[in-house]
Fold these 2 entries.
Entry 1:
Amino acid sequence: MVAKIATALTVMALTTAMMAGSAVAQEPVTKQELADSDLATLVQLAREAYEAGEYDVAIERLLLANRKEPDPRLLLNVARSYAQAGDCAMSLVYYAAFIRHPAAQEELIASAQQALDAGKGECEAYSEELGGRIMFESEPMFARVYIDDEFVGTTPTERAGMAPGTYQVRVELDGYADFTRELEVVAQQDATVGALLEEPPAEEEPVATPAIEEPAPADEAGGSVNYVAYGLLGAGTLALANGLIFDLVVIPGIDEERSQLDPGQTDEYNELTQRRQSRANVAIGSYVAGGLLLAGGGAWLLYDYMTQNSADEPSDEDAIQRRLGLRVAPAIGAESAGFVLGGRF
């Protein structure tokens, strides 16, 4: 019954009115070539496929034509193609889509409604609870569309007659970031999913940061700690501190005692004077010893620093020293301290 009524609706999407004056181009072989074809060519190719019994091909080309220039009459021809292919449910879904289309021609609505009403009683797979047309568009085109990980087709494409509910849509194209969204299918309602695909941000090359080498321990750096030199510095510091104690505390105390003596206390005065001179000698000796020790320890450490070779390659100063034969060494005597510089001059 549906097929008979559909035959009466060879409606006008495939009529010569839509193809008048148009030349039929060579049949495209890819979807991109189909998408680039004009409307009249797509309609003619759909008609040829329909007459050859290739109803799936005819449906694809009719839907492409409808996406290029929407015309509700094309939906009638999609319904007729599904009926001829034996898919009564999808045929009725597209009859319903034509009837609710805001631009549907009044003279065709009654015939489409008659086909829909007749088909409801014969097609068990059809239900008025089924969803309408879900159309998928993308920029760029020809992206792959998946609904709940099931491949639907490449954009532009559509799926109709889905059960009401929530679905996960993914649109992907090589070289672009995936587009995902949640789709709510409602009975007898059409919807469009538009995906604007974006190129993923370029990965920034990591900037090479020079590693900061931590100072190596003394034994790894090619030298050892000069404990003797540091001992000399410590001893010199103590000696200077001792001299300051005698000079600032002990000797002033003796002077204070002498100032309190009576003029007749000569023996006591002489004894304090000798003690003061002795303490003064100790202070002077401490200063001299402290200075010598500090000078010697500092000179030794400086010598170690100047003569230490680099772990990797010699420094410019070392190379100059070797070329000139220069040698620097500390010299510590009883009454003096300093450096001895030797070499060719």
Entry 2:
Amino acid sequence: MKVELKNLEKSAKEVTVTIPGKVMDDALESEIKKIAKKAKIRGFRPGKAPLAVVRQEYGANAYNLASERVIQDAVTSSLQSEDISYVSRPEVTDLQRNEDNDLVLKYTVDTFPEVTPETYKGFELERERYEVTDKDVEEAIGRILEQRAEFSAVQREARTGDEVVIDFKGKIDGEYFEGGTAERFKLVLGSGQFIPGFEPQLEGMTIGQEKVIDVSFPDDYHAESLKGKAAQFEVTLHEVNEKVTPVLTDELAKEVSRDREVAGADEFRQLIRKDIEEYMDSESKRKFREQIAQKLMDSNAFDVPESMIQDQARRIAGNILMQYVQSIPDEQTFRQQMERLAPAYSDMAEKQVRTSVLLHAVAKLESIDSSEEDMEKAIAEEATRAQASVEDTRKRLNAQALESIKANIIEDKVVDFIGANSSVTEKTVTKEDLERQREEVNA
């Protein structure tokens, strides 16, 4: 068997395999004999028809079966003999006999990009260090306590943040309209639950007061018949309830800490501080990795097979859908939704693929690998996240999962290596800095 390789665009290869004619002839004869053992042909007992008759009756079917087997064997053998790191299913593009009666097979396949990074040291990098303040801790605790808040009746005018209980009847052009009426409706002022301009006009109202509120429905309102229409709402206010947020006590601290036992409020504050520090540390590492990834991509151009990008986009979409798997009825629906969502993540997928390829290329150049100790530590961390024993976690992880863990370890080591061989400026950031960064990204 002769194998020839031709490089195509985007890290694809065209493989030409010349298969001796005798291989195909022998495969065809073998299929004919298999069929003959069970063939039912008029005039002969089952399995007793002469090969010539079987060949005449089932020749086309036998040829298809023989061709399929020979092609599969040739593809598998050529991929192995040429040590081709393929990342897509081989696609047969041509199959014909040459003048020597040999079978000439051509197929294309996407291969893992062959890239030798030229620049991966000496980058100018910035690492953020987050300074956790007492204010950050108290705000985080405040958000937790806010979930325990209750509304209590008060005898005063309504204010932003209050829950009011109202009746309302809406009119357009002097006529009451469908869906514009409710009784004893609970509304938190400032929540934005109603159309713009409605809630602010309730502020200052007192229990038992009636008022007519003038508003206009937004031009993009979901009900077509109400878009852009001016309306008047006749409102009666029945109750004003003030939100009361509990104060953090030792007993409440024990309750809200759930399965993470604390002695009291002070220890709970320490726990929250640690949580914030760990989260911000992970954010710092993520941003630092993104910097390195972008520097690598800017400095080392190479082609990426479209199949690798599509596969990664499917993985991203699948991971996102897994959060809602309980609402997806079956695997077929899951796959359909994954295929529908995947294109939206193509850009993200391409960056992830390029980053991974480059990091592993650097690992090869610098002989960076994962150790048994690294793997054991990673498995222990996975066990902690899954709230399972290390032994059960090890049994649950299949070969593919273990390979993924190993790849992540290597990538993390390469990031550390590049950071250690670059110029890194430390920058202390505050919560306000981060919020400003988010606003700029979302602008």
